[in-house]
Hints:
- The chain is built from twelve helices and 13 strands.
- The chain is an alpha/beta fold.
- It has one domain: NAD(P)-binding Rossmann-like Domain (Rossmann fold), CATH 3.40.50.720.
- A seven-stranded parallel sheet has the order 3-2-1-4-5-6-11, with helices on both faces. A two-stranded parallel ribbon has the order 7-10.
- Helix 6 runs parallel beside helix 7, helix 8 packs across helix 10 and helix 8 packs across helix 12.
Amino acid sequence: MSLLNHSRYQALRTDLVAHPRVWLVTGVAGFIGSSILETLLDLGQTVVGLDDFSTGYQANIDDVLRAVPGGAGRFRLIEGDIRDLATCRRACAGVDYVLHQAALGSVPRSLDDPVASNQVNVDGTLNVFVAAREAGVRRVVYASSCAVYGDSDELPLSEDRPSRPLSPYAATKAANEMYAMAFARSFGAEIIGLRYFNIFGRRQDPNGAYAAVIPRWVASLLQDEPCRIYGDGETSRDFCHVANVVQANLLAATTSDPKAINRVYNVACGETTSLNELFASIKHSLRPIVPSIDEASPIYEEFRQGDIRQSSANISDTRRLLGFEPTVRLKEGLVEALAWYARAAGVVDSKAVA
Length: 354
């Protein structure tokens, strides 16, 4: 860990406490949005949250408000859809910064319904950009994705690598980046994109056809059900705990370095983990509370269309220009996340997770 970058983030947190600001978090009821909300409220900020609850949950917001005493008095929720420009305008009024997390995630979902993915991820994001510009918002930070890279034999992936989308979802995120560039050049807007790699953490939904791999596997193992691996298990990902995502959003929103603005950045840990290795790590962490865990083996199925084979991030620009430094790595992040999932599943001795 770079001690200099760590101190930069700590200095930012201190400054936010001393000089509170007003933030809009779209997708606030999702697991990433609610994590951002928790940190902002904990730092004494005022937050407007926007969500249509199509993929997010009121329970996530309630969990945050229980965790932050007095936070409810500095939080205002707007239930609405980013596909409605008037709603976006109402949400952006009086806001200093926009952290745009709302999206229809999932490659498989986009293959099933590419039109819906485009309407939410492209049309909705354009509405957020328009509303933020009209409201005089200082800066917009939006969630992009490592999916824009497609498959590449040249790892780790750097931001200057051309986009090669393999799915409609990836194409929507590439379109977001093009719109951000156009708004910067046409209107002088300050917009920063964050290419999330494989994010995990508390409040991530383990249910549904499009659930991410970590919460889905944990839920299956806790229920003594088989886990499915698409392919041979040697598919690799750069897994990144949500605390690192929160840090990147706050740093991107507030950086004063002109060279850092109107760019896209990788948000990851710069580490590669295969799905087979991930499965073994989850099994190890769950062993204290799942007696039959040693007998669990994954079921290997056909590789899914649109999935990327290998993925790992070069985060040197994110470190250099934003002062980003991952504070939670996969091992310790899994301990925290698995304990949360165990509690959510009603496992009494979830403190045994380690």
